[in-house]
């Protein structure tokens, strides 16, 4: 019997003699695979079956001739170690199993397999390997008196897919159970605590006697079951026994002597032997599948549960264990194909990786001690000034951020209240003026187009045409201009992709001289182009019917008249222009000035861009000041598809029907509200302050400042006329 020594021994000494580290990381390593050739048996020699396999090195075995059925199949196979037929089992153990097997003393699970066809020498090999291993283990224990060892032994066989306890005289079938910690285990399996090496020898003898064997044509004493001998070793440092620091290393080594695959035709088996052979082959097939899958993908589904053999051996095949497989084979030519299958299995097996870990069992006291230490460490981390100060700084930063946001919210609320009060003022005035509800006798319509996202499509040419048309309108007579510009706008509206148009009318001043210094952006709304542009006439100029004269609110109300009214009066107003007295106009001007007084102030510092040809109201600018849901609604309209973007109002000549409107009140109040919104938008566009106090420079609208200025200008002119 050999003894543990050399570097391996030193390694183990380090483990069991030193401090045990809990939760040691696993070590990934491949299964150690070796091949052992046995000598030709007497039968094989007798029938003149030549030896076809030869070990050409310590790692490579070759077939001397090609395989009869597969002439192109490779004939050379390399493994971790190959053993010639004249090698004794001791050598096989030393080089092919010892390192793995003795890992058990350092708390690492290990397994030694023997795999091969029937009569290839598995039992012969495993018997010797087991003996060598146990001998070395006892030798190790003898050298390490500082540690207390407990050895336990158990043995099972899997016969026809029935698990049986080989240490029990009863032949009852044992059940397999799965446990989160223990993995798969055999229920009610007898486990004997070993007294000494001789005790183990006795038990192994019992197992041999209990194991199912039978005579076949190929093997007089053929094993008809898979046998698994399990030796569990627990060790603790004697000095810590019963103390807080006490820990235990616990691991098992499995000696697996598989039943041999056989061909019924060669084994000449029948009856019970044939049935056994079927079970053996089936379970070996599953083992081969598991090994093949493990050799390719580790994370895929591995059919461990397809047989009891693979269920029990799962930790040894792909889990927490070091594993060595010794493949045995007959060198006889008549078993070439079976030998080749064995080598293919071995080739797959050598690619399988296991993850062996040191298994440390802590005593309750040690566990409590360990947890207390961990708790103390965490508490000290919490108390660490560096950590605390960084947390404190983070909290301060968050607090500052919250305060800043609260301040911003307050400011926004103030702005919202201010905007709402302004809107109410405007609506109040608008409401007062609306009471008169005078039909628009005539009026010049100022249309503020609100281009939708396709505003970039507007060409300079189109813009200049519009301006020209407006000027034509202003200086050549309103009716003619309306026709011309209305037609032009119809075209423009198509190009604008259905722009939203707001119309503001002013009283007609046909005699007013051209104000070429101003480049207004007025357009004439085209009532006839509704089908195309779907414009909404939100604000229209009201004009008193000529001979009735203008009352003081007429101009004020001009921004509120229903579009129908405006439309109905377009054609009959020229004759009334001269009926407007200068006094009345001044009154109207004053009326207009009142609601716009504040707004004009805002517009005092306005920056205008007269060169732009369209009044574009950006709700983004307006809403910040007004905070009105009306703007939200308007913007919603902006965002709706073009077909839903505009509203027609009841009573329009086109019989318009509200479509896609977000405003939910009756048409008249809607008109009023829109007018109010419109005014608010006007005041908050170019020249109006943004919420943050800056100038709303992103709009192209010529604001109410211009409108009011024009009114002033007109009044002035009328005054002059009156004087004349
Ligand atoms: N390396 C070897 N040297 C000498 N004899 C051997 C060797 N290997 C096996 N034998 C002999 O070959 C015969 C068959 O061996 P063994 O029973 O171990 O085969 P097996 O693979 O276990 O067969 P089965 O699967 O049928 O149980 C035995 O008589 C055994 O003594």
Automatic annotation (TrEMBL):
<protein>
    <recommendedName>
        <fullName>Kinesin-like protein</fullName>
    </recommendedName>
</protein>
<dbReference type="GO" id="GO:0007018">
    <property type="term" value="P:microtubule-based movement"/>
</dbReference>
<keyword id="KW-0175">Coiled coil</keyword>
<dbReference type="InterPro" id="IPR001752">
    <property type="entry name" value="Kinesin_motor_dom"/>
</dbReference>
<feature type="domain" description="Kinesin motor">
    <location>
        <begin position="30"/>
        <end position="352"/>
    </location>
</feature>
<dbReference type="InterPro" id="IPR036961">
    <property type="entry name" value="Kinesin_motor_dom_sf"/>
</dbReference>
<dbReference type="InterPro" id="IPR027417">
    <property type="entry name" value="P-loop_NTPase"/>
</dbReference>
<dbReference type="GO" id="GO:0008017">
    <property type="term" value="F:microtubule binding"/>
</dbReference>
<keyword id="KW-0505">Motor protein</keyword>
<dbReference type="GO" id="GO:0005874">
    <property type="term" value="C:microtubule"/>
</dbReference>
<dbReference type="Pfam" id="PF00225">
    <property type="entry name" value="Kinesin"/>
</dbReference>
<keyword id="KW-0067">ATP-binding</keyword>
<feature type="coiled-coil region">
    <location>
        <begin position="361"/>
        <end position="429"/>
    </location>
</feature>
<comment type="similarity">
    <text>Belongs to the TRAFAC class myosin-kinesin ATPase superfamily. Kinesin family. KIN-7 subfamily.</text>
</comment>
<feature type="region of interest" description="Disordered">
    <location>
        <begin position="642"/>
        <end position="661"/>
    </location>
</feature>
<keyword id="KW-0547">Nucleotide-binding</keyword>
<dbReference type="InterPro" id="IPR019821">
    <property type="entry name" value="Kinesin_motor_CS"/>
</dbReference>
<dbReference type="InterPro" id="IPR027640">
    <property type="entry name" value="Kinesin-like_fam"/>
</dbReference>
<keyword id="KW-0493">Microtubule</keyword>
<feature type="binding site">
    <location>
        <begin position="116"/>
        <end position="123"/>
    </location>
    <ligand>
        <name>ATP</name>
    </ligand>
</feature>
<dbReference type="GO" id="GO:0003777">
    <property type="term" value="F:microtubule motor activity"/>
</dbReference>
<dbReference type="GO" id="GO:0005524">
    <property type="term" value="F:ATP binding"/>
</dbReference>
């Amino acid at each position: 019997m050999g003894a543990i020594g050399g570097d391996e021994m030193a390694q183990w000494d380090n483990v069991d003699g030193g401090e045990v580290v809990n939760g040691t990381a696993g070590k990934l390593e491949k299964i150690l695979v070796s091949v052992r050739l046995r000598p030709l048996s007497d039968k094989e020699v007798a029938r003149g079956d030549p030896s076809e396999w030869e070990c050409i090195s310590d790692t490579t075995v070759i077939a001397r001739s090609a395989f009869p059925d597969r002439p192109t199949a490779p004939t050379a196979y390399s493994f971790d170690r190959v053993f010639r037929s004249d090698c004794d089992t001791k050598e096989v153990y030393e080089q092919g199993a010892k390192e793995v097997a003795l890992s058990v003393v350092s708390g690492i699970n290990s397994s030694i397999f023997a795999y091969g066809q029937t009569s290839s020498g598995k039992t012969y090999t495993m018997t010797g390997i087991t003996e060598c291993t146990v001998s070395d283990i006892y030798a190790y224990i003898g050298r390490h008196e500082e540690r207390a060892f407990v050895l336990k032994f158990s043995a099972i066989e899997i016969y026809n897919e029935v698990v049986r306890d080989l240490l029990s005289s009863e032949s009852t079938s044992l059940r397999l159970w799965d446990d989160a910690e223990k993995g798969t285990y055999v229920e009610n399996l007898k486990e004997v605590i070993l007294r000494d090496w001789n005790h183990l020898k006795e038990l192994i003898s019992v197992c041999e006697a209990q194991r199912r064997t039978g005579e076949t044509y190929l093997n007089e004493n053929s094993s008809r079951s898979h046998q698994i001998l399990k030796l569990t070793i627990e060790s603790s440092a004697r000095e810590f026994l019963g103390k807080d620091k006490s820990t235990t290393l616990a691991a098992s080594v499995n000696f697996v002597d598989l039943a041999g695959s056989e061909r019924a035709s060669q084994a000449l088996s029948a009856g019970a032997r044939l049935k056994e052979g079927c079970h053996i082959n089936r379970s070996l097939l599953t083992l081969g599948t598991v090994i093949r899958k493990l050799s390719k993908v580790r994370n895929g589904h591995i059919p461990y549960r397809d047989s009891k053999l693979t269920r029990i051996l799962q930790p040894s095949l792909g889990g927490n264990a070091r594993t060595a497989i010794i493949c045995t084979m007959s060198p006889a030519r008549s078993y070439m194909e079976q030998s080749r299958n064995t080598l293919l299995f071995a080739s797959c097996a050598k690619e399988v990786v296991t993850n062996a870990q040191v298994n440390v069992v802590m005593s309750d006291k040690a566990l409590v001690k360990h947890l207390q230490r961990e708790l103390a460490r965490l508490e000290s981390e919490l108390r660490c000034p560096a950590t605390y100060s960084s947390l404190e700084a983070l909290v301060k930063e968050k607090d500052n951020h919250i305060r800043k946001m609260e301040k911003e919210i307050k400011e926004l609320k103030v702005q919202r209240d201010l905007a709402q009060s302004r809107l109410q003022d405007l609506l109040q005035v608008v409401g007062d003026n609306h009471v008169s509800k005078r039909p628009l006798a005539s009026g010049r319509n100022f249309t503020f187009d609100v281009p939708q996202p396709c505003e970039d499509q507007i060409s300079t040419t189109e813009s200049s045409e519009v301006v020209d048309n407006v000027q034509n309108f202003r200086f050549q007579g309103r009716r003619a201009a309306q026709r011309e510009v209305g037609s032009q706008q119809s075209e423009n509206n198509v190009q604008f992709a259905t722009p939203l148009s707001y119309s503001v009318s002013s009283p007609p001043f046909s005699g007013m001289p051209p104000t070429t210094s101003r480049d207004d952006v007025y357009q004439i709304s085209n009532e006839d182009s509704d089908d195309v542009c779907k414009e909404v006439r939100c604000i229209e100029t009201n004009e008193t019917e000529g001979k009735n004269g203008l009352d003081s609110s007429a101009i004020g109300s001009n921004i509120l008249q229903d579009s129908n009214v405006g439309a109905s009066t377009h054609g009959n107003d020229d004759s009334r222009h001269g009926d407007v007295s200068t006094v009345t106009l001044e009154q109207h001007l004053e009326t207009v000035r009142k609601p716009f007084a504040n707004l004009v102030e805002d517009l005092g510092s306005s920056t205008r861009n007269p060169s732009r040809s369209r009044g574009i109201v950006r709700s983004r600018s307006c809403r910040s000041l007004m905070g009105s849901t009306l703007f939200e609604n308007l913007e919603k309209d902006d965002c709706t598809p073009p077909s839903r973007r505009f509203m027609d109002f009841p009573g329009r000549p086109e019989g318009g029907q509200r479509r896609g409107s977000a405003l939910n009140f009756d048409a008249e109040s809607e008109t009023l509200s829109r007018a109010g919104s419109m005014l608010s938008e006007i005041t908050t566009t170019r020249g109006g302050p943004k919420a943050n106090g800056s100038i709303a420079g992103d709009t192209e609208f010529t604001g109410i400042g211009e409108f009011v200025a024009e009114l002033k200008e007109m009044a002035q002119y009328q005054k002059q006329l009156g004087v004349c």
